[in-house]
Design brief:
Elements (H helix, E strand, L loop, with lengths): L2 H17 L4 H19 L5 H12 L6 H8 L3 H16 L5 H17 L3 H14 L9 H15 L4 H32 L9 H17 L15 H15 L1 H6 L1 H20 L11 H16 L10 H14 L7 H15 L4 H15 L1
Helix pairs in contact: 1-2, 1-5, 2-3, 2-4, 4-5, 5-7, 6-8, 7-8, 7-9, 8-9, 8-10, 9-10, 9-11, 10-11, 10-13, 11-14, 13-14, 13-15, 14-16, 15-16, 15-17
Length: 368
């Protein structure tokens, strides 16, 4: 008996036992799912991978999801926790099909937007976290955007436990998404050697998410993630984007969808945020936010720093604005000038002399 089989049987038995006569539909759904699981095992699925693949196929017919969805409909905190726990188990083994996720989406939105019991919300975050580690689901743009939307919505919770858990879930989920994207790009590049940029769905999904997080970070409406910036969500988004660029600089520079986001979304908005500090009336006063904007600017300057060709006009524009901020009037706080000076250290640390000279040339051309 595989570990996944044993765990699913335990989850289904808990649903059947707790449902009893009070929720007959839940009990009947769990019994049908249990019979379906036994048929899968009798058909020859022995390992966790085999069971997960078979459940994915059954999941497309929603047979295995029925007991969990019925448990969520009870609006009972205990049954909702059991339902989310069961689906978390499926997601953690990548046993959820993308097509079956559509039946979960309405319940997920309702639980996230409705607030309610703290334990149920934590269970929802466990489910979202498991989904953001599942390779099958990370290839679906709509699914990933809904998962990111859910974490950002729960990040606005008044409960510090839920808010902190949501922030950690988003950070880990985006890191995993880009790890899968990097692996896919490497595998595809090896299979089509010599063709240059690889177009892969996981890379496209990563680009969409990166663009929307960048828009949220500067207070703009995202394209697909249907959530507005609130509280400190802009700082969370800045942290995630910064960590992503630093961890996956080569991926971002070598693939067209991600490079397009850098050129058309991230850098222009960074320039706008920095230029606002040149005028006293629009100057950023939040120390934490200003630090994150400066740090992200440094991350842009360090992208693919071992290549002369990576020096772009966008980087030169960033350097020019930073130089203007350092030499701004005496009305600018000393801490801000020092902050932008430290950011330019990223440029001074570039190991390639030719790259530094070319960047200086572009900056000089911008001044001219």
């Amino acid at each position: 008996m595989s570990l996944l089989e044993r765990q699913l049987q335990t989850e289904l038995q808990s649903l059947k036992t707790e449902a009893g006569r009070k929720f007959p539909k839940v009990r009947e759904g769990a019994e049908r799912a249990d019979r379906c699981l036994r048929e899968i095992i009798d058909a020859g699925a022995a390992s966790d991978t085999d069971v997960a693949a078979a459940v994915r196929r059954v999941g497309e017919m929603e047979e295995m999801l029925t007991p969990a969805l019925l448990a969520l409909e009870t609006k009972n905190a205990k049954f909702m926790s059991l339902g989310w726990g069961y689906m978390t188990r499926l997601a953690s083994y990548d046993a959820l099909a993308s097509s079956a996720f559509g039946s979960i989406a309405p319940a997920l939105k309702m639980c996230v937007e409705g607030g309610g019991d703290e334990q149920v919300s934590l269970r929802v975050l466990q489910f979202v976290g498991a989904c953001l580690q599942a390779a099958t689901l990370l290839s679906c743009r709509a699914t990933v955007c809904l998962l990111v939307q859910s974490t950002l919505t729960l990040y606005a919770s008044k409960s510090p436990i839920i808010a902190n858990t949501a922030g950690a879930t988003l950070r880990q989920g985006i890191a995993t998404l880009f790890e899968f994207a990097a692996a896919a790009a490497k595998a595809d590049a090896a299979s089509v050697a010599g063709t240059g940029t690889v177009d892969h769905e996981k890379i496209n999904v990563a680009a969409v998410v990166l663009a929307d997080l960048s828009l949220l970070a500067v207070g703009e409406l995202p394209l697909l993630v249907q959530v507005k910036a609130h509280g400190n969500s802009d700082m969370l988004c800045l942290d995630v984007v910064d960590a992503t660029l630093r961890a996956h600089s080569a991926l971002c520079m070598q693939n067209a969808p991600l490079r397009h986001v850098l050129q058309t979304v991230i850098t222009p908005f960074l320039l706008r945020q920095l230029e606002r500090n040149l005028a006293p009336k629009t100057r950023e006063v939040r120390f934490g936010y200003a630090c994150r904007i400066a740090r992200l600017s440094g991350a842009i300057l360090l992208l693919n720093s071992d290549s002369v060709e990576s020096v772009t006009p966008e980087k030169a524009a960033l350097v020019l604005v930073l130089l203007n901020l350092i030499g701004a009037d005496v009305g600018m706080p000393l801490w801000q000038q020092q902050l932008y000076l430290e950011t330019l250290c990223a440029y001074s640390l570039l190991p390639n002399k030719a790259q530094r000279f070319r960047l200086l040339f572009l900056v000089g051309a911008g001044k001219g």
